[in-house]
Amino acid sequence: MRKRITLISAACWFLAISFYAEEPAWSAKKPTGKSAQAKMDPKQRAFFENKIRPVLVKKCYSCHSSKSEELGGKLRMDTRDGMRVGGESGPAFVEGRPNESLLIQALRYDDLEMPPDEPLSEAVINDFITWVKMGVPDPRIDHPLIAKKPTEDSTVAKPELWSFQPVRNPAPPAVQNQSWVYDPLDHFVLSRIEAAELNPTHDAAPVRLVRRLYYDLTGLPPTAEQVEAFLDDYQRRQQQAVAHLVDELLASPHFGERWGRHWLDVARYGESNGNDGLGRNPTFPHAWRYRDFVIQALNNDVPYDRFLTEQIAGDLLTAKTPEERDRLLLATGFLAIGSKPAKAMNVNFDMDVVNDQINVISTGVMGLSVACARCHDHKHDPIPTADYYAMAGIFLSTETMWGYAANQPLTAPETPLHVLKSKHHYMPPPDSGAQPKVDPHTLSRKKKPKNVYPPGTALAMGVREKKKPVDCKINIKGESKKLGPSVPRGFLSACKVTQPPKIDDKQSGRLQLAEWLTSADHPQTARVMVNRIWLHLFGQALVRTPDDFGIYGERPTHPQLLDHLATRFRTEGWSIKQLIRSIVLSRTYQLSSFCDDLILDADPENKLLCRHNRRRLDAESLRDSILAASGQLNREPGLGSSIAHVDELVNKAGNLHLPDNHRSIYLCMMRHSEPPELSSFDLPDSTKPVGKRNETTLPTQSLFLINSHFLIEQSQLFAKDILLNPKLNDSQRIHLVYRRALNRVPESSELSRALALIQDVNTALKTEISQDKLRRQTVWATLCQALLNTNEFRYVD
């Protein structure tokens, strides 16, 4: 019977959605033709640089490049055109068809055998297959740019790359319509709009602005009562009402939950190691403590320079109390929570851990792909291999503490954890009903490991100093067994600061690295963070490749505005909350997402910021909004994690997720086994820093919204709550559903359609459900689910 009811509910949803689903009011036009083809997707470029180019350099260039003593098969693989033209056997690939591509056949050792000394791993071959399926995106040119290490006597004062130039403090430009400006940043935006002989669109309606502010600052929708209170205040005080609301939301504990999730994407946060290549996925039962550190730090508005310093070198900072000491140790989880390969099958294991730490610092904090210089001088950015190993020495002198991970050699069982002293961090064992039941068939071992710490010990992942710091030797072609000269620990030579800190022989250099990154004249740190904040408030960044400020990253749409904000960020004490406050109180932020055709045709990508961008809710906000609408959301902070006491090496981790109505940030985030309510909506895989999530539209998302047990259950609970008051008539209940789901009352035509839908569904279900109460709840659940599927619910204007 339940299956039948579900099918009928889905059919009724399909009927209802035709009434309630709304298309976006505008659709930004995308470039077509040759210009679109020439513009490579930044993610495709990143895939090539991280997965393909290092293998080509390491395994192919010795025989198939301009520097080869003899060009094998007359095939050049060091240029894009060389591979497309091919050699004696023809082109190296057929775009989109890996099985027909000579390159893939050779890598598989079908007919040809390349590389000839030994085959590549299956994982690497699969990367090349994916590359061919993608259409072989290749940013290389005929004469690759080789980055050279700047010399002391160089006549070039600064590198040409824009992001290495010092941050300026430009004066706000003059504008014609001075009355339009709310904040100095509006000058920079309006001057560009006026130069293009355009006008910005009108201001957002207050009812849309309040919803935008709640989602952007807390990740939650406002209640109907909160909307009404704001509209009443706005009618009396206009911008004073907006400022008052912004201050309330910034002070809310939900601010840290929303913006903490943004940082966790950059920090590649995960509660398990992920698939290690052997089909095993050891849990990280203590990673959640780093999550809580991030949330608390953002709620407390810890200055960004201090926030970074604590995460890179918290164990080296002075603490006045045991609680503060624990917090600083928790912060260093930033460097320890990365995904690690199987140690048993990887001779480069230690250097791979170092590479992950370099990548999260360089990509996450500086917006540079320093890790690309592991095997060779960076092919386009001014980062020589020597600079990579200068940074590598810092982390090679650091002990990474990720725990025993089920006592498996996979993650180095000799690695300890931080022991926390404060009673605040004690986590009592859960009741049996709150503990995930692990299927023995999913375990990679049968014998349970002994506990190496006394029961009840509060533990945390993190890092600490090694007893004897060392400089790192260059790993020739990235191989840790092929060593070149030693490189003194240090920083990027092309990134100039006035007084770079000196690394003591007795220290790893992490504290000095943090000081260098947060120097007053460091060119990237403030720009990158400002750009990330702008991205989360507007849906697009000023630099639209937020993780790549290098040669092949996009240039800022508003370079002076970026520097203006970076300067303000630093001079106002690196306060994230203050910067967000300034931006959301600007006229630019408060524009409507609706505009006329003139603006849309002149600037379809909205690079001039003539309007706001309509945005789809991310995975966490969508789930939290559904729970809020149904009345089931637990707004209290989640305690620990469902795997806080599960130290297991599992093959399948789906059974480790427990029902939980807390906010999504508190769900267990196992790598390669994401929470099922979120997995269809573009969650990052947490293996590398992600500044901007993918945004895809896939059939699985629609199927989730139609058939998901989670959404059907919440729709039933939503309906049950709506029916609690027997004094309401059907029209009043429809008003209540609309207010809770969409923060507004229905229009007369919507009310009529909803009444007709309820009557039709009730008639259709009479033969299926004889019990009046159950049938009535199912009827109203159909309407609730329909509204939860509308674009109006799933998008923010």
The beta-strand count equals: 10
Number of discrete domains:
4
Structural class by secondary-structure content: mainly alpha
Count of alpha and pi helical runs: 28
**Biggest β-sheet: strands ordered side by side in the sheet:** 1-9
Q: What is the typical, i.e. mean, pLDDT? A: 85
Radius of gyration: 28 Å
Q: Strand content of the residues, in percent?
A: under 5%
For the largest beta-sheet, the strand count, sense and barrel status come to: 2 strands, antiparallel
State the shape: globular
Sequence stretches where pLDDT stays below 50 over 5 or more residues: 1-38, 143-159, 406-413
Cα(first) to Cα(last) distance is 40 Å
Helix content: 40-55%
Description:
This protein has 797 residues and is mostly helical. The protein has four domains: 2-27 and 706-796, no CATH class; 41-133, no CATH class; 178-251 and 524-615, no CATH class; 269-517, no CATH class. The chain contains 28 helices and ten strands. Strands 1-9 form a two-stranded antiparallel ribbon. Strands 2-5 form a two-stranded antiparallel ribbon. Strands 3-4 form a two-stranded antiparallel sheet. A hairpin with a 7-residue loop joins β6 (472-475) and β7 (483-487). α8 (206-218) packs across α9, α9 crosses α10 and α18 (525-538) packs across α20. The two termini are 40 Å apart. Residues 1-21 form the signal peptide.
